[in-house]
Amino acid sequence: MNYLAKVYVTLKPTVNDPQGLTIKGGLLSLGFGSVQEVRAGKYMEIRLNGASLNEAKEQLQAMCHQLLANPVIEDYRFEVEEIRG
Predict the structure, then answer these.
(1) Distance between CA atoms of 6 and 63, rounded to whole angstroms?
(2) Please, which residues have CB within 8 angstroms of residue 19's CB and are 6 or more apart in sequence?
(3) Closest to 46 (Cα-Cα) out of 60, 58, 32, 29
């Protein structure tokens, strides 16, 4: 079966986010005064084959832990859906 995974990686709340601060500063300078905080992250789409949804989720868990995210400073989550056709 084919699956599409949507992977979201963000810095843990206790980790400083210089990119988020830069974005916040830019938004404020453009007049978006309501912005209080920006946290930047990564978004990835991964298509994969697996015998089952559980197998696909296990593979994604390993991918995130080993390469896609740094578990020391980043949190991650993913959604998986079956692709038909």
Answers:
(1) 13
(2) 40
(3) 60
Q: What is the CATH number of the domain that holds 77?
A: 3.30.1280.10
Mean pLDDT, range 11-29, rounded to an integer: 97
- How many other CB atoms are there within 10 angstroms of residue 44's CB atom? 15
**How far are the Cα atoms of 10, 21, 29 from residue 26, in angstroms, in the given order?**
20, 9, 5
pLDDT per residue as tens digits for the range 30-60: 999 999 999 999 999 999 998 899 999 999 9
* Structural domain range at position 66: 2-83
Q: What is the pLDDT of residues 4-18, one digit of tens each?
A: 999 999 999 999 999
What count of residues does the chain have? 85
Number of domains in the chain: 1
